[in-house]
Each structure stands twice: as C-alpha cells, then as structure tokens.
Specification:
This protein is mainly alpha-helical. The protein has one domain. Helix content is 64%, strand content 0%. It has 3 helices and no strands.
C-alpha cells in the first residue's frame, strides 16, 4: 500500500509542478489522468507524458497485484480507499 501511495503522490507532484492541479483523492486522479494525457494543449513535454503514462501503468500493476493477493487469500473484494477506516 505504501508503494502505491508514494507513486500517486509522485504523480500528483509531477503534474502540479507543471501547473496541473487534480482534485484530492486516488479515484479522482485515476479518473482525470486519461484526459490529461490526451490533452495536447497542456504544457507537458513528450518525455513528461511518457513518464506520467509509465507511472500510471505501474500504479495499475500494483492494483492488479493487490487484487490477485486478495483473491488468493480468499478475501472478498472491498474498497481499498476505505482500508484503515472503521465504522
């Protein structure tokens, strides 16, 4: 989990350094990234676009690993953004 949080923070910081502010929350970033990458009017160099794309793929890979781990452990699916929160 910490690896994913660090990766998301890195992505957010990279975008913010280039004047792109994304609303708080992992899901919001996940939702907005495809549009950010597709928007040619943004001041992102090809290298930065590739880096953002690579980080996004790494994030998706981590999510897939977590899902497979949960399935192998026989755990039901649950929302990961609620981990650590109690009713």
């Amino acid at each position: 989990m910490n690896e994913r949080i660090a990766l998301i923070s890195h992505l957010r910081a990279l975008l913010l350094e280039r004047g792109i502010n994304v609303a708080q929350g992992r899901r919001q970033l996940e939702k907005e990234l495809p549009g950010i990458l597709a928007d040619e009017t943004l001041s992102l160099s090809p290298r930065v676009r590739q880096l953002v794309s690579d980080l996004r793929e790494e994030w998706q890979g981590l999510d897939l690993r977590f899902t497979r781990f949960d399935q192998a452990a026989g755990r039901p699916e649950y929302r990961r953004d609620c981990v650590g929160k109690f009713p």
